[in-house]
């Protein structure tokens, strides 16, 4: 593992054919706040987060992940990461420079091993945010992003070798082998995870709520609104976080969660959990059974943005 210079997850940017429908879902139903708009672009913030935005939506013909953005400590760390990646043969999309997105900052973009666009940035202006009130069932922050990979072992190795991500835990199945790897960039159990899938795509984006009561209120609010629930409510063993998975209007999986473990990184040793054991998937036993039909919902459509940088 290389030296860790990435500090945290900033935002996930999605391209969708129907921007108006997606924006309405994320604001009126999911609980994000529209902070900035531009031609064909919407920047959505979480009320409790200092990040300028946690989701960017762009109207496009093809549905895709536009990019996944991570923070670095300062401009020197951004330059170090860019130089390291270039010297190791990673293809840069943009050189380090001033960002033209809300909050500004300094950053660059590159393609990972499967062609996803990743952005690393520092010095982005802090957004004015507020504490989430008791009983308020809106996201506090973007918790983590999980991607499907057709070659997950290579993808895990890429984020370890080039970006210093640490392995927290692995999920396996006796018949299928290793299936999901949880990666961290700070003491949170994971800010990214890699899932074995038929093709590269978004598996899910997860949003942290204030606590269990707010998480359950949010889950209930989505159910009452008629949003399709895939799986939950329950509590995972890896990460010890709660989960309720839903489908957005374009078929992306989005999750409400809370109480993700914060690790003592000096003493933590990764586990390998067998998720054929029902208590690994759901300690509470309250979620619908995980099976191949439920799992397939999060395979998503093949990402059409691989090795094609978003236009903005």
Automatic annotation (TrEMBL):
GO molecular function annotations of the record: dioxygenase activity
Source organism superkingdom: Bacteria
SUPFAM superfamilies found in the cross-reference section: Glyoxalase/Bleomycin resistance protein/Dihydroxybiphenyl dioxygenase
Keywords associated with the record: Dioxygenase, Oxidoreductase
Pfam family, one: Glyoxalase
Domain VOC: 8-123, 141-259
Entry protein name: Catechol-2,3-dioxygenase
Record organism: Geodermatophilus sabuli
